[in-house]
Amino acid sequence: MADMLTIGSQAANTYKQALDVTSHNVANVSTEGYSRQRAEISSNTPSLIGASFNGGGSTVDSILRIQSDYIQTQLNSSNSAVERYDQQLSLATQVEGVIASNDEGVQEFMQRFFDGLQNVANNPTSQTSRQMLLDEAGNLETHIGNLASVLDDTEEQINSQISGLMTEINDRLDTIQQINEEVERALNTGTQPPNDLLDQRDQAILELSGYIDIKTFPQEDGGLDIFTSPGNLPLLADNHKTYIMADLSPYQDDRRMEIYMSIGGQKQMISDRISGGQLGAVLDVRENLLDQAQNELGLTLNGFVAAINWQHYQGYDLEGDAGGDFFQSLSATAMSAKGNIEDGSGITVTFNPDTTALTGLNGTPPYTAATQPDTYGEKEAYLQQALSEIGQMQARDYEIRANGTGYEFFDYKTGAQITPDAVNGDVYKVDGLEFDFSGQTNNDGDKFLVKPHQEMLEQFTTILQNPNDVAARGQSPVDTGVAGLDDETPAPAAYGDNVNMANMASFASQKILLSDENGEATLNILGGYSSMASNVGMYVRGTEIQLTAQQNVYNQIMNQRESLSGVSLDEEAANLIRFQQAYEASAQIISTSQSIFQTLLSVVRG
Questions:
Q1: How many Cα atoms are found within 13 Å in the side-chain-facing hemisphere of 509?
Q2: Is the peptide bond between 194 and the residue preceding it cis, with omega within 30 degrees of 0?
Q3: From CA 83, how far away is CA 278, in angstroms rounded?
Q4: In this predicted model, what pLDDT tens digit does every residue of 414-440 receive, in sequence order?
Q5: What is the pTM of this model?
């Protein structure tokens, strides 16, 4: 039976604990991730005395942590999205400023070059106009070179960020693993949950979610398993860590960093299975903005170089010689996968129009008197074939897999298989480009990576240096046969002719890029650049919209958490007064009990 003294003592202890909990809340009002706690007070079991029950006082059953697992999960997910789009916007804005600027940007320098072509067309024998054209070509080359250098720096910046994020992620996993162990020990040695440890773990998980999107799964021993979302890769399972690491691409000479994890004892690349958080952001910017913009700009440059060169082949310079290369033609390299037998050096990737359908063609540009086609018609047909294949170019990278008897092509980004347009022995035509494997052995299992459009950014060079070599003249208009000029032997027009230069200048508006299913080109050179710049702008604007939306969601969820779990100083101040009064009243019970006891002793001794 609980007497008055016992009840008072227990009550004093109860409200002392309540005061301790309230004080702890006040002390942690500014602690990040802290969840307010509450002393759960209940009545002790009453005692039966005669026909009635006498109360047994009160006790603190537990110290309750006020929180919601659902809200915490939503907060982790929202935090991952906010950190992703915030980091994504920062990088995307940087790329936009570099690659899509209209002020002294690629489009401006291309327009100047086309203006230079038109000036030569207007003054075909002017040395000044010809030199100005070459100067503008050099200016364009310099600008493209500077742009390629800045983009390389951006790639290195992303590599550095990936490496740094690996450290942050693995450090958080270490922290969570350690807290898991402490939680398990606490639960095994006591009956009360270790509230502050649980808060610390939730905060560490929230920080981890800012770097990578994750899912958590509570375990019976009090631990938490952590997996990537949506890749379902175990980062922490049964409290065993699986570190993720940054290392170079599986392709030789590819400078980019990728994400790896040990799965089943094998080191596997998992970059495509990572999303959310800052890590997901840098990977997304690299793949869907930087790579795509480089490929689209590189495709525009490849189309530009091929069109200018092939039209230049049609004309004749001041000396009456056929035009040569104006710019360096594409010559892309194949990067070999680590572990290959062949290193890829025997693979050539060029723009070399298919002549199998051009009956009787026997010329190969750049032309000389000995190598030009027999007729002007054949020469024109070769040009039209070149323009047709320019339209077939696609803004993508190629993964090539040897199967022992042939080669299979895949879009490196999507993994979709690509059917070659033509195969002639070891020579494959894919998207208007020629892949020649005749210089190497086909070893089953070898893989190669080719980035022809990004390489054009690196190798863009003006070849023509002498103003006299600008091939402004067109074909001689003299018709000696019955089929117009088509059956005439290729020959230069008279000195001062401008037909070929006017044709070159027309590429500023002539559609030659990205042919549709009917073979009709949909974009001109300047339009190709504008399309790329527009895509970059849409990516940035879309990221801005997503960031604003996700910040609003995050703020709403955080407000919900603060409303439920946050410490209110007004509420805690009221609790302090209430519990202090209860504690003082409990002390009064003890004092009264002692006074009654002394009175009884006095009566007995009386």
A1: 6
A2: no
A3: 6
A4: 999 999 998 899 999 999 999 999 999
A5: 0.89
